[in-house]
């Protein structure tokens, strides 16, 4: 008998999540009595599986071989998803950095910069860069990236940069990281999102704002580009989002600054699957 463990895949996780989403949508369509009973059953099953997973974590914690077993288990996408949905795994520093780099990749690409995680050593993060993020003119961009990482990721004390040997090397890294991060969470339904309103959503530790204008959905980090205050309560009119604090205005589709061009909202990439609005999970 083979002792090689067959891992599940992120595609399988995604398929399972889609089935769950579809089943939840079906429950919503039931009459009240049937919906109540079905939700009770769902809660009982969740309690049962939650208690089971917590017990597995406790046993692994006290077992002499528990830590390597836990690490091996968490390499499996289905297991990692089940544990993270229950809040039983914390992202590693490397995972947090990779997730953050994926979030800012569109802006970096616009500036002709490519940056990937090279290594993590305790609280020191080494990034590998090319394009405008490398060379003698890259100081400003590297400082911005360093500030972003230090301000967003608690366990990181130092960020250093090294130049990639070639563009191809960094492109392979980006592809690997994209695969590693191919985990999406549903954060809302297009059909249920009100038009021209800022709807707050939380994903892990990220606070986001969803906006639907003329049927097009956009997602931004919930921080105004002026002083970083929450965008909840911002007014949206004619595709212009106006922050309630000091009236800075932004394009509600792209997040681009209108009051001060270049002072833009931070866009969070999303995808729409059927009616579901999904963003890459930070872990
Ligand atoms: S914080 Fe939004 S306009 Fe000042």
Automatic annotation (TrEMBL):
The keyword Phosphoprotein does not apply. Keywords: 2Fe-2S, Iron, Iron-sulfur, Metal-binding. Residues 185-279 form the Rieske domain. InterPro entries: FSCA_dom_sf (IPR034904), Rieske_2Fe-2S (IPR017941), Rieske_2Fe-2S_sf (IPR036922). SUPFAM superfamilies: Fe-S cluster assembly (FSCA) domain-like, ISP domain. This is Rieske (2Fe-2S) protein. It comes from Ferrimicrobium acidiphilum.
